[in-house]
Amino acid sequence: MENLAEKICNLKYDFLDAYKGNSHTTEVLPKPSSSELLIKDEYLSLLHDFLENNPIYSNQISQKFSETEYIIFEGDLNNYWIDSLKHDSSYAPFYPTWLLSAFCLAFQTQKFGYEQIIDIGSGDGRIAYCGKILGLDSISIEIDENLVELQNKISVETGVNFNPICSDATIYDFNKISGKSSIFIIGGVPEIGEVLAESVIKNALKTNQLSNSAFVLTGSHSHRKFSRDTTHFGWGPLINKLELSIISTHSLPTYWTMDQKFETPYVFVKKG
Predict the structure, then answer these.
(1) Which of 22, 216, 199 is nearest to 102 (CA)?
(2) Does the predicted model carry a pTM greater than 0.85?
(3) 112-129 per-residue burial string, b: 16 or more CB within 10 A, e: under 16
(4) Mean pLDDT of all residues in 204-233
(5) φ/ψ (deg, to 5) at 95
(6) Calpha distance 36→30 (Å, rounded)
(7) Of 175, 117, 165, residue with least CA distance to 141
(8) Structural domain range at position 252
(9) CATH number reported for the structural domain that contains residue 52 in this entry
(10) Whole-angstrom Cα distance, residue 168 to residue 262?
(11) Are 57 and 47 in contact (CB under 8 A)?
C-alpha cells in the first residue's frame, strides 16, 4: 500500500509539472500495459472505463512524461458540485478524491481482509467502483439524486454494479446491509463532515452484523484559525468521543489538494 500510495503522490507532482492545459478537473492514468504503478492491466483498463463513461470528463489527451505514456482526462465538476450544495450544510459538497487514490483505498481495504466496502457520501461512486473491480462487495450511498443517476449510468455503461443507493446516510437503515466484514469510507473533512461521520459510525456500531466494522475518515492538514482540536488530522475529538483506535493513516492526492504541497490523509479507525 505504501509503495502504491507513494507512487501516486509522486505522479501528482510529475503530472503538475508536465500538464499545460487549463482544466481544473483532471485525472491522469497510465495507459494499460504500463508497469509504472504496478497495477494489473485488467484493473487499469477498468479504471479507464470508469472515466471514459463518466459524463464529468469530456476530453482526453495522450501525453508522455517520466518515461511513461499517460492519458489525461479533462472535465468539469461545476454542475454536480453546485447541485450538491442544495443539501443540508452538515454534508460536504461533491469534490472527489483522485481515481487512483480511490483505487488505493479499495486496495488497502482488501489487504486488511475486509470483504465489503461501504462508501458514504460517494459522489460519482469511484471508491465503491474500485472496490467492486477488486472483488469486494460494494455499496455506494449518496444523498444527491443527480449524482446517483450519474452512478447508475456509469454502472450500466461499464457493466460494474457497485450498488448505488440514493439515501441520507445519517438515517439509512444499516440492517439492510449484509453482515460481511465491512469498512465504511466516509466523505467530508472534519469541519464539514463531523455530523455525518459521527452518525454513520454510531449507527453502524449498534447494528449487530456491522458492529465490528472499520471506518475511514478523510482528514485535513489545514484547519480554520480557531479550530478547537487538530489532532489526528482534525478527527481527534470524534476518535476520543467514540473510543476508536487508529489502524493506519495514508496520504493520497485529492481534487482539493491538487495545488498544495501536501496530500489528503485518510485515517483508518476501528472500535476498541
Answers:
(1) 216
(2) yes
(3) eebbbbbbbbbbbbbbbb
(4) 81
(5) -155, 95
(6) 7
(7) 165
(8) 2-271
(9) 3.40.50.150
(10) 31
(11) no
Strands 116-120 and 57-65: unpaired
Per-residue confidence (pLDDT) for residue 83, from 0 to 100: 58
What percent of the chain has a predicted confidence (pLDDT) above 70? 92
Q: What are phi and psi of 53, to 5 degrees?
A: -105, 15
CA nearest 257: which of 125, 19, 98?
Answer: 98
d(C-alpha 84, C-alpha 228), whole Å: 27
Residue type, position 145, single letter: E
Question: Please, what sign has the CA dihedral across residues 113, 115, 120, 126?
Answer: positive
Q: What is the pLDDT of residues 33-70, one digit of tens each?
A: 777 788 999 999 999 999 999 999 999 999 999 889 99
Q: Which three cell numbers stand for residue 171?
A: 438515517
**Among 32, 68, 37, 80, which residue's Cα sits nearest to residue 52?**
32
- Quote the number of domains for the chain: 1
72: phi then psi, degrees, rounded to nearest 5: -100, 125
Upper half-sphere CA count for residue 15 (Cβ side, 13 Å): 25
Cβ count near 221 (within 10 Å) = 16
Task: Tell me which DSSP letter residue 171 carries.
Answer: T
